[in-house]
Amino acid sequence: MKLVVGLGNPGPKYDGTRHNIGFEVIDRLEESLNIPLDQSKFKGVYGFKRVGDEKLFLLKPLTYMNLSGESLVPLMNFYKIDKEDILVIYDDLDLPPGKIRLREKGSHGGHNGIRSIIAQLGTEEFKRIRVGIGRPVKGQAVPDYVLGKFHNDERVEVDGAVEKAVEAVETWTKSSFKNVMNQYN
User: Fold this and answer.
1) Which residues cross the membrane (predicted)?
2) Is 64 annotated as a binding-site member?
């Protein structure tokens, strides 16, 4: 079994914001893989289906970003999904819009959603796809920036990054994560 988690904040107020890029990737995966998020439990919405010889789960935590681990870990424990089979998708200030970076482990880097997952899992060793959102302009507060919407000129690049992340997840259903990293990094 594999679990793909996209981080974001619930509600229409946050749709299209930089912090919700993980939700955007899950929404695209829901369409492309035909996995409806029709289950509501574990403080999130999720769905699953057999892809190849494994069950693939998609999860959008509804805990708000800073408590993401409170949704991921109960679902993981209930379905007995190994930590090695978790992939978390989230926004990254240190990457320019349109870039993605895949890693097998790492610190939270100041990202509170990842901080929550690390605290709940008890490890930094889980797969991730970081999607670049760029840095705020000088003088703009980070919370205002990440909760703001993309500018029109960024949107094209971000849509491309979302598509690359979707392709990377789809490739992971058929290949090792190391191969996926080599292909998409």
Assistant:
1) none
2) yes
Does 185 appear as a known binding residue? no
Q: Give CA–CA dist 120/96, Å, rounded.
A: 29
pLDDT at position 20? 97
Tokens of 122: 């008890």
Choose the catalytic residue: 19, 108, 111, 151: 19
Q: Which portions of the chain are predicted below pLDDT 50?
A: none
What are the residue ranges spanned by the domains of the chain?
2-184
Residues 6+ apart with CB under 8 A from 134: 93, 95, 96, 97, 154
108 is known as an active-site residue: no
46 is in an annotated binding site: no
- How far apart CA 100 and CA 132 sit, in angstroms, is 6
What pairing do the DSSP bridges indicate for beta strands 2-6 and 54-61?
A: parallel
Enter the pTM of the model.
Answer: 0.96
How many CA atoms within 13 Å lie on the side-chain side of 148? 17
